[in-house]
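Q: I'm writing up a methods section and want to include an example of the input and output format. Could you take the sequence below and give the corresponding predicted structure tokens, formatted cleanly so I can copy it straight into the document?
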Amino acid sequence: MRREMLPPRSDWRQKVEALGLDFHTPGGEPYWWEAACYAFSAGEIDLIEDATDALHQLCLEAVDRLVAAGDFGRQHIPEPFWSWVAASWRRRDPDLYGRFDLVFDGSSPPKMLEYNADTPTALLEAAVVQWYWLEEVKPGCDQFNSIHEKLISAWAEQRRLHPQTSRVDFTGVFDEPEDLRTLEYMRDVCGQGGWPTAQLDISQIGWNGRCFTDLAEHTIEALFKLYPWEWMLRENFGEHLRADCTAFIEPPWKMLLSNKAILPILWEMFPEHPNLLPASFQRDGIRGPCVEKPVHGREGAEVRLLGAGEAGLGGNDRIYQAKCPLPVFDGMHALIGSWVIDGKAAGMGMREDRAQVTTNTSRFVPHYFR
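A: Here is the clean output for your methods example:
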């Protein structure tokens, strides 16, 4: 594993914009960065893929145990929704995708920092944009990336599992450029999977007393939502979710994995697992330096690095995870986002930042292996 410097393509802006990545320089700061790339060996890619598959299986087992126990209080899910979430798991509502954030230095086992199991982004960049970069800049090399093909196949499988559903509606916050492009990309691969689609902003979804509807009062039969479950539960129409009149992608049981409370729960269930880091609901549950994370934090917000003996903010909305520093290359901290599509590892994207905490402004950098 190493970071390589190389000259960007002279017309890279036009090329990535043609693929839908028009948010490559938000606020004048680079997000897509091809003046560097990350190189891996085939053996290292195998380690990342195996760790991703192993972690996903641990997460599914954790959901099974949590549903059997019947108590979702530590995950900040309101109690009126518990039976609805459990029913979603018991009937095995199909999930589509997720992204593990991993620490990997090329030698030690990859370690899970968190699981973006509900609304992961950086998808178009990983699935499409870096693949076209590879074909032009590194011909003859390979990339850990079958995301696009697996998404089309996964959507085809979703249609097989929902034979009575005529179309999928796609929703999110359209004012966010990255979210909108992610939705448009997901809608495209869904269409390639054979399903008719429509698109509407989350604010345009209504409730007619029996079911969720669009602006034309058409029933929303299936909904892909780039909108977090913890927000949806607390919306004005949130109480109607329990009517179970819509097939959601991601399904309700995914909210058991999509907040950081799952990190100490996984450590309790699978202590000393080589791909997990020690985590606790209490600061004194972690010896030495640790990272304090909000249960519902997003994109590095409110993450605090605590030294040995340094107290945290406390409160039941925080968890603590043993510090595992990101590897540093040329002054950049490198993070792996490893994708799961239809339950299997499918590819990865690299993010980097001069700071230790990866945020929504951290660069996306392509990768390859020989």
